[in-house]
Amino acid sequence: MSTAHVAAEVVADVLIVGAGPTGLALGVDLARRGVDALVVEKADGLFPGSRGKGIQPRTMEVLEDLGVLDAVLARGGPYPVGMIWQDGKRVGEHRMFDPAELKEATADSAFTVPWMVPQWRTQEILFARLEELGGRVEFGREVVGLDQDDLGVSVRFTSGPELRARYVVAADGGRSAVRRALGVGMTGETVDPNPVLVSDVRITGLDRDNWHVFPPSGEGDDGYLAICPLAGTDDFQLVAQFPEGTAVDLSLDGIRKVAAARSHLAPEDITEVRWASDFRPRAALADRFRAGRVFLAGDAAHVHSPAGGQGLNTSVQDAYNLGWKLGAVLRGGADAVLLDSYEEERRPIAAQMLGISTGVHRGEVRRGAATVQLGLGYRESTLTEETRADAGTVRAGDRAPDATIEGVRLFDALRGPHWTLVALGTDSPGRGVESVRLVRGPAQEPYGKGLFLVRPDGYVGWAGDSAAGLPEYLARFGR
CB-hemisphere CA count at 13 Å for 242? Predict the structure, then answer.
């Protein structure tokens, strides 16, 4: 850490590096809290590909709170049923998700299944929301280094002036320049050594009612092919696996050849390639999520196999966790020690989700209860206080389930950058809680009876049979 490099003028409270879903979601959350944040992105525009296309129910709840749910619902759609092909014929359906597990896991949420939205469109929606809130993005700003001191961080770029902020958030992907500049290591493994082509294409002669799967023929074919219609667009996402060591051809001719070799499609049925990339599935976790005044979020902190749709979702939830804490410190007067809880809470979650995505990739975990992310929580966090002698189903640290209380949907009351006290079957909480929104009603499942203080990110921070200890908790964290 440097204490000498303070030449650049402070341009923002928070400088967010990377205009992907993580950076944009954080920008939106900070903007609605009145925090001056600037997003910088090395590319000249938003990412153009479909890559992370699945939004899990928990992330749908987050997006509802951020004010973009209507756009996400209108411009996406449900996942189609898988269709298995063999020798040019349909031979059977394949369900991507376990219906029974999904139904049980989503019983207390308005969102019952993953929702398909191509990543480029998710980013467009978040970008529009950020601009609506007065947020800023500067494109063409590639980070090459940084220095930090006790008051802030100065960031250098390949071109343009140096920028300085009180805090910096690295949301610049798996090859994060910020993480490398910090010297933070990343520990991981190759999930699958076989390279995978993923591309957004236009196709004729293939219906959009199914996710078309073409398994290897077993006769010298190179690997599987899957073609999924991208909801809300005219595109398909084409995915093909190749043997280890293959140089993947990303051209139109190359993609036409692999489609024709592995399916009944003719080369000319692939009419356009709109975006294409290749990757080797891996799983990796940053050794730290914080270095001084710099935080790592999204792929800069954890890299997933795309199987199971955990990467983008975990990343957006990183932003949701960090946003209210930065807002509390920068605008609410909370002690900066609150920011220590970001790594404490999110790194174990990221490690857990990495295990799940790797398990799904290897066929060891079904898509269902484990992948919708509604059951994640922070029971062991230093921000969590459970004071009841006989705690019920919902405990401090858990996600606050949706419910209808006295005719009001609880999530409507929770929406916004504030704390909420849910009082069920108890007396008035008394003095010391005037700063939070109050929702009252009779005892009901799954909460039971008690007082539940819900954090701005929708998790129960404190729970008790009475208000004893509640004002003290709010004085420490509830800003």
Answer: 20
**Inter-CA distances, 320 with 6, 160, 222, 295, 313, Å:** 30, 30, 41, 13, 11
Q: Give me 329's structure tokens.
A: 């410190």
| DSSP, res 213 | E
- Residue 5: per-residue pLDDT: 44
**Contact in structure between 200 and 168 (CB atoms under 8 Å):** no
Give percent helix, percent strand, percent coil of the chain, each to the nearest 5: 25, 30, 45
Segment holding 103, helix H or strand E: helix 99-105
Which structural domains are found in the chain, ordered by start? 10-78+114-188+283-361 (3.50.50.60), 80-109+193-280 (3.30.9.10), 385-477 (3.40.30.120)
Query: Contact 185/198 with Cβ under 8 angstroms?
Result: no
Distance between alpha carbon 40 and the CA centroid of its chain, in Å?
19
Residue 220 pLDDT: 58
CA distances to 139, 153, 170, 286, 419 from 41, in Å = 5, 17, 11, 21, 32
- The rounded distance, in Å, linking the Cα atoms of 320 and 62 is 7
| Closest among 306, 51, 284, 299 to 190, alpha carbons compared | 284
Q: Kindly list the averaged pLDDT for each block of 10 residues, start to end, along the chain of length 479.
A: 52 97 98 98 98 96 98 97 95 85 90 96 98 97 97 96 97 97 95 95 96 85 90 97 95 97 97 96 96 98 90 97 97 95 98 92 84 95 95 94 95 95 89 88 94 97 95 86
Q: Are 281 and 306 in contact (CB under 8 A)?
A: yes
* Concatenated DSSP letters of 26-83: HHHHHHHTT--EEEEESSSSS--S-SS-EE-HHHHHHHHHTT-HHHHHHT-EEPPEEE
d(CA 402, CA 109): 6
The closest of 307, 277, 310, 83 to 196, measured between CA atoms, is 277
Encoding tokens for residue 301? 């902190």
Coil vs helix vs strand at 329: helix
Question: Residue for token digits 């019952």?
Answer: 112
* Residue 147 near residue 5, CB atoms below 8 Å: yes
Taking the model in full, what pTM does it have? 0.96
Q: Tokens 């970008």 map to which residue?
A: 127
Cis amide leading into 114 (omega within 30): no
If we measure between CA atoms, which residue out of 79, 129, 12 comes closest to residue 232? Answer: 79
